[in-house]
């Protein structure tokens, strides 16, 4: 079954500043937003992981099983 991507009207890519170029879809219960112009990706799991990091801890990186 093909993945259904939806465009986000009026959204601006944080990387290349292109307007109306962000597509969103869900993969393995993770929301993914990708710019179709430059390929920049954002994942909802990244945001959730950052919220759980405590201020006094040092994080080297957050890894995803992609």
UniProtKB/TrEMBL annotation:
Q: What is this protein called?
A: Putative cytoplasmic protein
């Amino acid at each position: 079954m093909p993945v259904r991507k939806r465009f986000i009207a009026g959204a601006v890519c944080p990387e290349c500043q292109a307007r109306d170029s962000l597509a969103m879809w869900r993969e393995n219960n993770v929301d993914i937003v990708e710019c179709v112009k430059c390929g920049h990706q954002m994942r909802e799991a990244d945001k959730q992981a950052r919220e759980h990091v405590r201020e006094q801890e040092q994080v080297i990186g957050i890894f995803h099983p992609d």
